[in-house]
Write a structure and sequence with these properties.
The structure holds two protein chains of two kinds. Chain A is mainly β. Chain A contains no helices and nine strands. Chain A is 0% helix and 53% strand. Chain B is 45% helix and 10% strand. Chain B is globular, with a radius of gyration of 22 Å. The chains are: A mainly beta, B alpha/beta.
Chain lengths: 121, 417
């Protein structure tokens, strides 16, 4: 499978995203906690540029004994890609929508070779 | 084989621009060949807050004008009644970024920003409404509503509608004051770009009381439609019971229009003003079949409660107009198709984006529906609005150029053969 060189490790700051164009497709390469993820920059909802939005953790309602509401927090272990057009949220880990897994961002394999980052297209 | 990408964009170094945010919409417009037909967007918005210093100068009352200069206008903070988090706490990036968007000094910023998103979506003509000022309805000082509405309407006519033929509006009626509504229609009814008048549905007023009759009569005589534009307010007593935006918005935007629709019907307004066209704006569509069924069922047992009605409520509702957004589209294709049948969508439904708000819909939400034929799609996307508002079906310069390029390419192909 052809690979496209995206950057040298470190060129994309942690938490940032670089958009690359491969043919007609635009791919967002996201660096999060020193891991790189690559998804097609196209939301399955209405076609928004999903990778250009914020990354936000899962919001959690904290519920105690007998259904008591204790407050809210973020689950930093479950980061989401948030489409900036309408707010559809997808797991950064696999690109699936957080509720309906049938909706998903197209995922690309990321290959790190030495200090260079490639995407298999 | 390895290939180094020849171009890339690092988002952290990029300035916000509507055209960039919406370039996928532009691709949809090209793929679906929107240059083949006219698209009118019947509900879009601008943020009048950004021009409020200008608008304040159009307020006639010098005391109110001074107060407006001093106070400005904006949404409240997190604890206020209007302190919503519509923009999903920053997730909808165009909310915080819009103010940073660079535009040329001319034309007016609002015109440039409107044209940018209209061109990307493939919209030729848009009916534009304000945003925070929709909730002037909740201002307890009715004279402030009247003064501000007049100032805004004057500013809108002189600064935007007179200058840009692609932008239209249904002007804000200060509905707490029927006499002021009547004066508004008299003053602005013939102005360029004014295609009707609009009531914000969060007005806690009885739309059937006698002082309003001259307002409806004036609109009917002029052939101008009356829109009820939905909104929500967390000040509503029942909605104060909600604690999440999804609840106050999901209920509020439908409830306020259901309330006005029910009062409108059972008091026989469609019989009193048979030529007055009404448009129900930004409540989505799912509420319409619900209310049709509910009112028909009760009416058949209680016709004496609505003696002006000669037909079932749903039959009047089928003759009214509805804007499409926010169209309920998740896993409900059958329900949506039935809804389209019940509201007679091919002639009564008007495409609306609500751009730039968080739940905006692109033209493809209509264009891609499998149960509509092409004529119905074109009617909903622009033809119905063209007839209702008497619009000239002129394609945007961008779409005209695209059409000309296609024709030139076709001609070149024929010549080559």
């Amino acid at each position: 499978m052809p690979e496209v060189l995206v950057c040298k490790h470190g060129e994309i700051a942690d938490g940032d995203v670089r958009l690359i164009k491969v043919g007609r497709e635009e791919i967002g390469v996201i660096r999060h906690r020193d891991t790189y993820y690559a998804y097609r920059n196209l939301c399955p909802h209405q076609g928004g540029p999903a990778c250009e939005g914020l990354r936000m953790p899962q919001v959690v309602d904290r519920i105690g004994d007998r259904g008591i509401f204790l407050g809210q927090t973020f689950d930093e272990g479950d980061m989401h890609i948030v489409c900036p057009w309408h707010g559809y949220e997808f797991h950064l880990s696999d690109g699936c929508h957080v509720i309906d897994r049938r909706l998903r961002l197209k995922k690309y394999e990321v290959v790190q070779r030495g200090d260079e980052i490639f995407v298999a297209v | 084989m390895n290939e180094h990408t020849r171009s890339f964009r690092d988002l952290s170094a990029e300035a916000f621009d509507t055209r960039t945010l919406l370039r996928n919409a532009a691709e949809q417009a090209i793929d679906r060949r929107y240059e083949d037909f006219f698209i009118a967007d019947v509900d879009s918005h601008h943020y009048e807050t950004e021009a409020f210093r200008e608008i304040a100068e159009f307020i006639e009352d010098p005391v109110l004008r001074n107060e407006a200069r001093f106070q400005g206008t904006s949404r409240g903070g997190i604890s206020s009644e209007t302190g919503s988090y519509q923009e999903l706490a920053g997730r909808i990036t165009r909310y915080p970024e819009r103010k940073n968007e660079k535009v040329p000094s001319k034309p007016h910023r609002d015109i440039t920003l409107m044209e940018r998103w209209m061109d990307q979506l493939g919209v030729d003509v848009a009916v534009m409404f304000p945003t925070p000022m929709l909730n002037l309805s909740n201002c307890p000082r009715h004279e402030v509503e009247v003064g501000l509405a007049q100032g805004y309407n004057r500013w809108l006519c002189e600064t935007i509608l007179d200058k840009e033929p692609r932008i239209k509006s249904m002007l804000y009626l200060p509905f707490h004051d029927p006499e002021a509504c009547f004066r508004t229609i008299e003053e602005f009814g013939d102005r360029k770009g004014v295609v009707g008048f609009m009531v914000t549905a969060t007005h806690y007023t009885r739309n059937y009381t006698n002082p309003y009759m001259k307002v409806y009569a004036a609109l009917e005589e002029r052939g101008l439609p009356l829109g009820f534009h939905a909104a929500f307010t967390w000040a509503d007593q029942s909605l104060q019971l909600t604690n999440r935006f999804i609840a106050v918005h999901g209920l509020g935007f439908t409830w306020c229009n259901m309330l006005h629709m029910a009062n409108w019907l059972v008091n026989g307004m469609p019989e009193r003003f048979p030529k007055l066209k009404t448009i129900w704006i930004e409540s989505g569509l799912a509420w319409v079949p619900f209310l049709m069924q509910r009112l028909d069922n009760e009416f058949m047992m209680r016709t004496s409660d609505a003696p002006l009605l000669k037909r079932k409520p749903s039959e009047y509702m089928r003759e009214m107009y509805y804007t499409s957004q926010p169209m309920e589209m998740v896993d409900n294709r059958k329900a949506l198709e039935v809804t389209f049948e019940m509201i007679n969508a091919p002639s009564q439904l008007l495409y609306s984006s609500d751009y730039p708000h968080w739940d905006m819909d692109l033209p493809s939400t209509i264009y891609d529906l499998p149960f509509l034929d092409m004529q119905a799609k074109r009617n909903i996307l622009g033809g119905n609005a063209q007839k209702l508002f008497n619009l000239a079906p002129v394609l945007s310069p961008v779409k005209q150029a695209r059409l000309a390029a296609r024709k030139a390419a076709q001609a070149a192909g024929v010549a080559a053969e």
